[in-house]
Amino acid sequence: MPINLPELPYAKNALEPYISAKTMEFHHDKHHKTYIDNTNKFLAGTPFEKETLESVIKKTANDPKQTAIFNNVAQAWNHTFFWSCMKPGGGKSPTGPIAEQIKTDFGSYEKFVEEFKNAATTQFGSGWAWLVLDGSKLRVMKTPNGENPIIHNMIPLLGLDIWEHAYYLDYQNRRPDYVTAFIDNLINWDFVNMRFKERKLEMQTTRL
After folding, report:
1. Per the domain annotation, does 191 fall within a domain?
2. Per-residue pLDDT tens digits for 152-191
3. The domain spanning residue 62 has which CATH number?
4. End-to-end CA distance of the chain, in Å?
């Protein structure tokens, strides 16, 4: 079944002034669409054609013969996930279960922010910064290019695109300012809480 480009969960100008409508137009309508189009092209007629994106990501990671498939499928998944990680009026300190877990695993929200900023700003070249559930514990990680935590058997809860196309029109080479704007004003903690609660419930059910 062909993969379709998902609609954004908000208007293209909804994240202004932190991310402009022009950036969202290029990022979603061109970059993400290209990954979707290539995913459909590369999967057609292969054994992966009817599998989920997550399954294809796991099966093609680290296989040199499947690099083109992996890169495009992973980026198609990453971007769909990324749009849900943001919302107008987002950011600031989280509440609910994720806030409690952050305090438990990082010591404080401020320590989490420090680690997340460090991961996002020190990733050399293109890549992503993530908050993940690694077993029963939260951790921050960074990945290059289209790689994501799924291939490391970790559960992504929050992701930040740090490819230049995600921020260059608005921030030029000031990646740290983009990262700060994301944390302070855009993170959709409702989505992160939902992901966290769902995965914790799955883990508890699996142990029964």
Report:
1. yes
2. 999 999 999 999 999 999 999 999 999 999 999 999 999 9
3. 1.10.287.990
4. 34
